[in-house]
Design goal:
There is one protein chain. The chain has 311 residues and is of the alpha/beta class. Helices cover 37% and strands 29% of the residues. The chain contains eleven helices and 14 strands. The protein has a six-stranded mixed β-sheet with strand order 6-7-8-3-9-10, with helices on both faces. It has a four-stranded antiparallel β-sheet with strand order 2-1-4-5. The protein has a four-stranded antiparallel β-sheet with strand order 12-13-11-14, covered by helices on one side. It is elongated and about 75 Å long. It starts with 6 loop residues before the first strand and ends with a helix. 40% of the residues are buried.
Length: 311
């Protein structure tokens, strides 16, 4: 059995002039793994994906995709992957089935397999009976599933999805992720970049990218366990603006952020904060409700590892 990683990245660097977009990134991904890229805009996620797709040449480092070097053999890399960009890539003035035939030709799907693969993609996209409609008339969720079908018509072992559900309603996003996990269960390695914290929870592992660097890598549970220095409290206090300023000055408070109608507050130690913080806030003239220790969410991880790094 071949235990080599589906993707291996070592010391990857990409510079555009004097700007370093990717700075010494390294990781690997196994067959059937869903690896999520999480990070702010401009962090370098899309640049890394384009390098791994053979669309950009790295400045330094090494990346192997399906066993092929992205710098030395980008054509072989592109023949073994599927890629779905964050911008909608289908042709609005063609029908769904015409788009599928077009991409089948681009990916050199054998003629004897094309009809079966098109039928599969139509069914997957939920377009049975509507395959002759223009893509321009389709709803966003159908378009995204159709775009995924086009990207995997040639049955690639590795798929790269760059913010594939941006602007899609929650129900369609959930359906799209069901398709992703069906692919992973069949052995396909899936890379997906996202800004949605609920989507990040669906990934087997997450790579947190910031400033072109890999700042954290692990399962969602691992990242949540190791992300907070100290303890995390949920604090209900009004009014929000005055309370946030007061919490920033409070003894033992390391960081405070608004979460809905309350605050997530990082403290050096839970017990003294739970004992002393209510009285301290009341002395500032603030109306306080419940204060309780809570486990960190992925959003807390993001704030701690990215927001904290920028502070």
């Amino acid at each position: 059995m071949n235990d080599a990683p589906a993707v291996l990245v070592e010391g990857l660097v990409k510079r555009f002039g004097t700007f370093t977009a990717v700075d010494g990134v390294g990781f690997s991904a196994q067959r059937g793994e869903v690896l999520g890229f999480l990070g702010p805009n401009g962090a370098g996620k899309s640049t890394i994906i384009r390098i791994l797709c053979g669309l950009l040449r790295p400045t330094a480092g090494r990346a192997l995709v399906a066993g092929f070097d992205v710098a030395r053999d980008p054509e072989a890399v592109r023949a073994h992957i599927g890629y779905m960009s964050q911008r909608f890539s289908l042709y609005d003035d063609l029908t769904a089935v015409e788009n599928l035939r077009f991409f089948g030709g681009l990916y050199r799907v054998p003629a004897e397999m094309l009809a079966e693969r098109i039928a599969w993609a139509v069914e997957m996209a939920g377009l049975a009976g509507r395959e002759t409609e223009l893509v321009a008339t389709l709803a966003g969720g159908w378009k995204q599933r159709l775009a995924l079908g086009c990207a995997v018509l040639h049955r690639p072992p590795i798929v790269f999805l760059d913010e594939p559900t941006s602007g899609v309603d929650p129900v369609s996003r959930r359906q799209f992720w069901q398709l992703i996990h069906h692919m992973a269960e069949s052995g396909v390695t899936v890379f997906v970049s996202t800004h949605y914290m609920d989507e990040a929870e669906y990934c087997h592992r997450l790579a947190l990218i910031d400033g072109g660097r890999l700042v954290a890598l692990g399962t969602p549970a691992e990242l949540k366990r190791g992300s907070i220095a100290g303890a995390l409290l949920r604090v209900e206090c009004q009014p929000l603006g005055e309370a946030l300023a007061a919490l920033a000055r409070a003894p033992g408070v390391l960081e405070a952020a608004v979460f809905g109608d309350a605050f997530h507050v990082t403290v050096s130690s839970a017990a003294p904060a739970l004992r002393d913080l209510p009285g301290w806030l009341a002395a500032q003239g603030l109306r306080c409700g419940s204060i309780a220790e809570i486990p960190p969410s992925l959003e807390d991880v993001f704030v701690a590892r990215v927001g904290g790094a920028r502070a």
